[in-house]
Amino acid sequence: MTRMIRLRVNGAVHEVEVPSYRTLLDCLRNDLGLTGSKEGCGVGVCGACTVLLDGKMISSCIALAVFADGREVTTVEGLAEDERLHPVQQAFMDLGGFQCGICTPGQVVAAKALLDSTPNPSEAEIREWMLGNLCRCTGYYKIVESIQAAAQEARP
Amino acid sequence: MALRIVGQPIGRLDGVDKVSGSARYSADVTLPGLVWGKALRSPLPHARIVRIDTSNARALPGVLAVLTARDLPDVLVGRRMFDMPMLARDRVRFIGEKVAVVAAVDPDIAEEATALIDVEYEDLPAIVDLVAAVEPGAPVVHANPGAYEGAPAERPHPNVQSVLRFKLGDVEAGFREADRIFEHTFRTQLAHHGYIEPHAGVVAIDEDGRVQVWASNKMPYRLKELLSHALQLPKERIRVNLTPIGGDFGGKGSLMDLPLAYHLARVTGRPVKMVMRYAEELMAGNPRHPSVITLRTGVKNDGTIVARQVKALFNSGAYAAFKPAPSVNLGGAGMGAGVYRIPHLLIESLCVYTNNIPCGHARSPGEPQMVFAGESHMDMIATELGLDPAEFRRRNLLQDGDHLANGHHLEHVRAKETLEAALEASHWSAPKAPGIGRGVAMTHRHIGVGFTNARVRLETKGTVTLLIGLPDTGTGAHLVLRQIVAELLDLSLDEVQVELVTTDVFETDSGVGGSRVTHTGGRAAYHATEKLKELIAAEAKKLGAPDASLATIAQAAAREGRTLEASYFYDAKAHAAVTSFTAQVAEVAVDPATGQVTVRHFTTTHDVGTVINPLGHQGQIEGGLIQGFGYALMEEMPTEDGRISTLNLGDFKLPTVGDIPPLTTVLLEDPVGPGPFRAKAIGEGSISAVAPAIANAVADACGVRIMDLPITAEKVYWALREQERRS
């Protein structure tokens, strides 16, 4: 069974017909060509597929596309504004917050969500918030430093 | 020489596409008409395939092809020893072995179709236990392993894939000199690399009949050779297109599903993408070998080691195909000697066939296993001798001019300095509260060897392009290469670009791995740039303008139809006489009620060469260290009758940001490496000593000695209860 759904992704509206079992991640990647969000574990624990649904952080590999019908999705491709990287993205580059980069789309989307709700997080708050985003390259130290620096940068 | 760019902590200028989501990894590659491949895997550890019925799968709308071994040429694949079928032929040898493969218009239909394939199996006796597998009369995994291409000749038991020995002096004579002899046996677990990107690849046969490949593979030229072998096609017919790799850690060097993707592409006439699910990674993704390691060490009463014998069994699983070394064994076995001067030494390492997941190379292959065993053994001996563990090590450390077990002699040995720096930084001798322990462990690692091609080209706008065939596994190596070229030509980093080239461009390249890239890629780029500088100087002289800008020089050459470019092939065959030492100290707290181990602080000390990019260098240390931390405390894939019970990343625990301990890093810089600007290597230096440092700290904290990894609260808890019962 397929359904026509209407998604607003990074500000652009898409109408797409999907089977009811299609995940939001597969819809973004394969139907809309937005391959920034990655599939790692496929069961909602690694965080590589993290996107924002109406501003809230979710694992798109275990959310159905039909569940997002009529709603607003923000992916890593939507973080930069006018070609200018989000402070979190810039900090990850400047401070070694990524290596291979496969978990990075999820990391930066999660970190943006944190700073949206908590502009000045403590190190403990960063660690708590980022628990759901696995990284196998960095050992996390530089991810924490990057988010701290981005919070500094974003503060007016 | 004053350096401008080499030695600067430069961020990942090359990473805009990674942080913005536009980087195209193999799983992101799409082509017109692309279809999806999916494999059906064996549910049994050892069985005869009686019959495969694919008719229901073929009938599913959207399915384009279903292949079994009968549809494929009878070719075995591998990296050095060729013992693995692309699809099981008549017999399956582990749970997860591929028995059929489907191509369909979308991944969901492909997966559904695999469930419609009906396979009738007849159970065969399986051998899953490592020690039992080499006993007389054990069920045999392969009838005639010696007949496989690339099989080593020595085979003391039909289930032995390979034997690797390291020998110094006369070990029996050495034991006769000993006052006391200690023997301990250690076990290590099965553990996947944990890269977040599962294996992915796309294969397309273009209009010229060439096979175009995009794959998460770190050795493109070796991949081309191995595909040529597997597909029975000339190398020239195959082109590997480089993509970023989403984590390697030793695991991304094999063919994996690519031969099947090719055959599906051949049969369907469509480009085929195959992406493993993570459950497939965990059941068939060439993880780190489990081991059983026995060390026997003879010492004099003054604490001097005179002899050591090491017997290591590595559980290689059902196939040897994933091991790349000519020995078809794990070079890390040589670390049975540790960082110590042992005049009489015999190490014997056996890789063993069982009906388990085939294992492969993982970051510093064999070393985390061997260093856990060796460095735990050192502390157990120190305790028996009544010596401080640091002092026992101090009395036996390698020195200048000593020989390693593999015969290499050593220079610039800084084992003692590295140890002392770790002890000082960790406040080794400071008083401790009850329940707190400190443990030290050491290792060292060679600087990788191999061969790399580089080409540098002066562009007419005065910038320089470096052409290289080394894919990006995440280490920041391309940035390091840019730093080297920019430094030598007195350019800014922005004026040097890296162009990744396909396997059509160079003759060969050993690719990424074995802590070699800064050395081999760096030296290739260095020497190519030096040659380019000579061309530039000659051109300037010809122009009669020694101070002419690079743009002027390049344009002058262009006007005569010439491009100024230089190539260099750097080939390091033998290891340098220097290595890098590591000393690490863990400080732990053990909860006496639960057995929970908390690492309160970790100190890591490294004897390094010139550090080209301190930010990337530190990233390698931290990443490797936390992999070692996970290996020590949580990563484990328990198996029962060959069935792995942790088939997702929720059950197979990797460290999270909440787990990482406070860290102190100390670097002892000594510019004596074989790399560019006298760099050494760092990628595999921080992983191996973590587990024994923690195990030794646990013993120090509560008297409990854990001899099998990982060090879980449950094991410590039961050992504490046993300790109470005895006292």
Explained architecture:
Chain A has 2 domains: 2-78, Beta-grasp domain (Ubiquitin-like (UB roll), Roll), CATH 3.10.20.30; 87-154, [2Fe-2S]-binding domain (DNA polymerase, domain 1, Orthogonal Bundle), CATH 1.10.150. Chain A has helices at residues 24-31, 87-94, 104-117, 123-129, 141-154, and strands at 2-9, 12-19, 50-53, 56-59, 72-74. The termini of chain A are far apart. In chain A, a hairpin with a 2-residue loop joins strand 3 (50-53) and strand 4. Chain A contains 5 helices and 5 strands, in the order ββαβββαααα. Chain B is built from 16 helices and 27 strands. A 7-stranded mixed beta sheet of chain B has the order 3-7-1-14-11-12-13, sandwiched between helices. A 5-stranded mixed beta sheet of chain B has the order 9-17-16-15-10, sandwiched between helices. Chain B has a 4-stranded mixed beta sheet with strand order 18-23-24-27, sandwiched between helices. In chain B, strand 20, helix 11 and strand 21 (496-500) form a beta-alpha-beta unit. In chain B, helix 11 (477-489) packs parallel to helix 12, helix 12 packs across helix 13 and helix 14 (614-633) crosses helix 15. Chain B is of the alpha+beta class and 727 residues long. The model of chain B has no long low-confidence stretch (mean pLDDT 97). Chain B has 3 domains: 26-124 and 197-246 and 252-284, Aldehyde Oxidoreductase, domain 3; 291-447 and 575-726, 2-Layer Sandwich (Aldehyde Oxidoreductase, domain 4), CATH 3.30.365.10; 449-572, Aldehyde oxidase/xanthine dehydrogenase, molybdopterin binding domain (Aldehyde Oxidoreductase, domain 4), CATH 3.30.365.10. Helix content of chain B is 26%, strand content 25%. Chain B is globular, with a radius of gyration of 27 Å. Classes of the chains: A alpha+beta (156), B alpha+beta (727). The interface between A and B is large, with 60 and 60 residues.
